[in-house]
Amino acid sequence: MDQENKTPACCACHQTKKRTEEEYKKLANRLSRIEGQIRGIRGMLDRDAYCPDILAQAAAANAALNAFSRELLSSHIRSCVVNDVRAGNDEIVDELLDTLQKLMK
Fold first, then answer.
1. Residue range of the domain that includes 73
2. Quick one: which of 27, 24, 11, 37 has its CA closest to 89?
């Protein structure tokens, strides 16, 4: 709960979430590294790199993006989901299950 304006850190409408500075920096740094990997892959393509080499880098970028998603999901469960369940909002469980279905495609 944000003490200044008395709103939950993760609002009931689930449109926004106020993250701690530490959480924000951690996620932003992960994304910056992923962006660098993607630019590197583009550079490999521009330099006509060997296909398996590009594919190996693409797999590494996918793994990094999956790690980002796991980190964000963990944070979501530990904050928004737990808070909503404690507040009696059981619909959050359905939302979580929908989110997991999308992640597992």
1. 21-103
2. 11
